Amino acid sequence: MPTQLAQEFRRELNALHTTLLAVAPALADTPWRVGGWTRKQIVGHLLDSATNNRQRFVRTATEGPYVGPKYAQDAWVAAHGYSEQSWETLLRWWQTEHEILTAVVDRIPEERLDTECVVGTDAPVSLRFLIEDYLAHQRWHSGQLTDGVATS
User: Fold this and answer.
1) Where would you tag: which of 95, 113, 142, 143 has the fewest CB atoms within 10 A of its CB?
2) Which domains does the chain show, CATH number per domain?
Protein backbone atom coordinates (compact mmCIF):
# COMPACT_ATOMS: atom_id res chain seq x y z
CA MET A 1 0.00 0.00 0.00
CA PRO A 2 1.36 3.46 -0.87
CA THR A 3 2.69 5.52 2.01
CA GLN A 4 1.04 8.73 3.11
CA LEU A 5 3.84 10.58 1.31
CA ALA A 6 3.08 8.68 -1.90
CA GLN A 7 -0.60 9.58 -1.64
CA GLU A 8 0.29 13.26 -1.16
CA PHE A 9 2.72 13.03 -4.09
CA ARG A 10 -0.06 11.74 -6.36
CA ARG A 11 -2.56 14.40 -5.20
CA GLU A 12 -0.12 17.25 -5.72
CA LEU A 13 0.99 16.09 -9.16
CA ASN A 14 -2.63 15.67 -10.25
CA ALA A 15 -3.32 19.25 -9.15
CA LEU A 16 -0.21 20.49 -10.96
CA HIS A 17 -1.28 18.68 -14.12
CA THR A 18 -4.60 20.52 -13.98
CA THR A 19 -2.70 23.80 -13.65
CA LEU A 20 -0.50 22.96 -16.65
CA LEU A 21 -3.51 22.12 -18.81
CA ALA A 22 -5.02 25.52 -17.96
CA VAL A 23 -2.05 27.48 -19.36
CA ALA A 24 -3.05 28.90 -22.73
CA PRO A 25 -1.00 27.34 -25.57
CA ALA A 26 -0.48 30.85 -26.98
CA LEU A 27 1.76 31.54 -23.97
CA ALA A 28 4.03 28.53 -24.49
CA ASP A 29 6.75 30.50 -26.27
CA THR A 30 6.52 33.49 -23.93
CA PRO A 31 9.19 33.86 -21.27
CA TRP A 32 7.76 33.97 -17.77
CA ARG A 33 9.93 37.05 -17.12
CA VAL A 34 12.27 39.17 -19.19
CA GLY A 35 15.38 37.12 -19.93
CA GLY A 36 13.86 33.97 -18.42
CA TRP A 37 12.94 30.63 -19.87
CA THR A 38 9.82 30.28 -21.96
CA ARG A 39 6.99 28.24 -20.55
CA LYS A 40 8.02 25.42 -22.92
CA GLN A 41 11.53 25.50 -21.47
CA ILE A 42 10.15 25.48 -17.92
CA VAL A 43 8.07 22.37 -18.67
CA GLY A 44 11.16 20.85 -20.27
CA HIS A 45 13.15 21.60 -17.13
CA LEU A 46 10.43 19.86 -15.12
CA LEU A 47 10.83 16.83 -17.40
CA ASP A 48 14.57 16.83 -16.78
CA SER A 49 13.94 17.09 -13.05
CA ALA A 50 11.57 14.13 -13.21
CA THR A 51 14.14 12.07 -15.12
CA ASN A 52 16.96 12.88 -12.71
CA ASN A 53 14.83 12.34 -9.63
CA ARG A 54 13.44 9.04 -10.92
CA GLN A 55 17.02 7.73 -10.95
CA ARG A 56 17.55 8.97 -7.40
CA PHE A 57 14.26 7.58 -6.09
CA VAL A 58 14.66 4.15 -7.71
CA ARG A 59 18.32 3.73 -6.78
CA THR A 60 17.70 4.73 -3.18
CA ALA A 61 14.64 2.51 -2.87
CA THR A 62 16.36 -0.51 -4.39
CA GLU A 63 20.05 -0.11 -3.54
CA GLY A 64 20.18 1.94 -0.35
CA PRO A 65 22.14 5.16 0.21
CA TYR A 66 22.45 7.24 -2.95
CA VAL A 67 25.35 9.40 -4.14
CA GLY A 68 25.01 10.99 -7.55
CA PRO A 69 25.45 14.10 -9.64
CA LYS A 70 23.48 17.28 -9.95
CA TYR A 71 22.57 18.22 -13.47
CA ALA A 72 23.41 21.23 -15.62
CA GLN A 73 19.90 22.53 -16.12
CA ASP A 74 20.58 25.08 -18.88
CA ALA A 75 22.61 22.58 -20.89
CA TRP A 76 19.94 19.90 -20.52
CA VAL A 77 17.13 22.23 -21.57
CA ALA A 78 19.15 23.31 -24.61
CA ALA A 79 20.19 19.74 -25.49
CA HIS A 80 16.59 18.54 -25.53
CA GLY A 81 15.37 21.43 -27.69
CA TYR A 82 12.19 21.86 -25.68
CA SER A 83 11.50 25.24 -27.25
CA GLU A 84 11.12 23.48 -30.60
CA GLN A 85 8.49 21.01 -29.36
CA SER A 86 4.77 21.64 -29.45
CA TRP A 87 3.07 22.64 -26.20
CA GLU A 88 0.78 19.64 -26.50
CA THR A 89 3.74 17.27 -26.86
CA LEU A 90 5.43 18.72 -23.79
CA LEU A 91 2.26 18.39 -21.72
CA ARG A 92 1.84 14.75 -22.80
CA TRP A 93 5.47 14.05 -21.89
CA TRP A 94 4.98 15.74 -18.51
CA GLN A 95 1.93 13.61 -17.83
CA THR A 96 3.63 10.37 -18.88
CA GLU A 97 6.83 11.07 -16.97
CA HIS A 98 4.85 11.88 -13.84
CA GLU A 99 2.68 8.78 -14.14
CA ILE A 100 5.93 6.78 -14.12
CA LEU A 101 7.38 8.78 -11.22
CA THR A 102 4.16 8.40 -9.22
CA ALA A 103 4.25 4.64 -9.77
CA VAL A 104 7.80 4.61 -8.41
CA VAL A 105 6.94 6.66 -5.32
CA ASP A 106 3.88 4.43 -4.72
CA ARG A 107 6.24 1.46 -4.35
CA ILE A 108 8.85 2.94 -2.04
CA PRO A 109 8.61 1.16 1.32
CA GLU A 110 8.17 3.40 4.36
CA GLU A 111 11.44 2.11 5.83
CA ARG A 112 13.40 3.39 2.80
CA LEU A 113 12.16 6.98 3.12
CA ASP A 114 14.84 7.84 5.68
CA THR A 115 17.68 6.49 3.52
CA GLU A 116 20.48 9.00 2.95
CA CYS A 117 20.92 10.70 -0.41
CA VAL A 118 23.73 12.96 -1.54
CA VAL A 119 23.25 14.97 -4.73
CA GLY A 120 26.36 16.62 -6.07
CA THR A 121 28.17 18.46 -3.31
CA ASP A 122 24.99 19.13 -1.30
CA ALA A 123 24.69 17.99 2.30
CA PRO A 124 23.12 14.56 2.83
CA VAL A 125 19.31 14.45 2.97
CA SER A 126 16.75 11.70 3.24
CA LEU A 127 14.83 10.19 0.35
CA ARG A 128 11.71 11.62 2.00
CA PHE A 129 13.26 15.09 1.77
CA LEU A 130 14.08 14.58 -1.94
CA ILE A 131 10.47 13.59 -2.65
CA GLU A 132 9.04 16.51 -0.68
CA ASP A 133 11.54 18.89 -2.28
CA TYR A 134 10.56 17.57 -5.70
CA LEU A 135 6.96 18.61 -5.04
CA ALA A 136 8.08 22.04 -3.82
CA HIS A 137 10.17 22.41 -7.00
CA GLN A 138 7.17 21.54 -9.18
CA ARG A 139 4.97 24.03 -7.28
CA TRP A 140 7.57 26.78 -7.62
CA HIS A 141 7.84 26.36 -11.38
CA SER A 142 4.07 26.04 -11.67
CA GLY A 143 3.93 29.55 -10.25
CA GLN A 144 6.26 30.73 -13.01
CA LEU A 145 4.06 29.14 -15.66
CA THR A 146 0.99 31.00 -14.44
CA ASP A 147 2.64 34.19 -13.13
CA GLY A 148 0.96 37.35 -14.37
CA VAL A 149 -1.15 35.67 -17.03
CA ALA A 150 -4.74 34.65 -17.40
CA THR A 151 -5.15 30.92 -17.97
CA SER A 152 -7.64 29.47 -20.41
Assistant:
1) 143
2) 4-146 (1.20.120.450)
